[in-house]
Amino acid sequence: MKRILCLAIAIFALSTIAVKAAGSSKINGWISDSMCGAKHAGSGAECVKKCMQSGMTPVFVDEKKKEVWTIDNPDAVKSFYGDHVTVTATADADKKSVHIEAIEAAK
Fold first, then answer.
1. Is the dihedral of CA 63, 66, 69, 73 positive or negative?
2. Which phi and psi angles does 36 have, rounded to 5°?
3. How far, in Å, are 45, 76, 103 from residue 84 at the CA level?
4. How far apart are CA 40 and CA 95, in angstroms?
5. Is the dihedral angle over the CA atoms 103, 92, 54, 29 positive or is it negative?
6. Which DSSP category does 65 fall into?
């Protein structure tokens, strides 16, 4: 468990900005959980749902760069755990978080 937590922290620390800090951007990615992050992006919907039931928090994983962002309004993604989505979001680069304004299944 500690190894996974350290890995998640390293991913957050080493990733670069995926979304512009000013204004909102539309971007494709996955809704994952804070424990697995990008590990299951695109292949682990059942794991994400189990982790969410176990108390993990949702995160957004950028499709192209596999960057992991915390979601500051997690209720916005409740119906999309583990799904490939398109979000319209604003980012806070200092906190490495996004605020989801709109979300839909990716096409």
1. positive
2. -90, -25
3. 9, 15, 10
4. 23
5. positive
6. T
Domain extents for the chain? 2-105
Q: For residue 51, with 0-12 CB atoms within 10 Å meaning exposed, 13-18 middle and 19 or more buried, which class applies? A: buried
Helices (H), the chain: 2-14, 45-53
Q: Which residues contact 94 (CB under 8 A, 6 or more apart)?
A: none
pLDDT tens-digit readout, 60-102: 999 988 899 999 999 999 999 999 999 999 999 899 999 999 9
Residue 45, pLDDT score: 87
Dist. CA 1–CA 20, nearest whole Å: 32
CB atoms within 10 A of CB 79: 11
pLDDT (tens digit per residue) in 20-41: 445 899 999 999 999 999 987 7
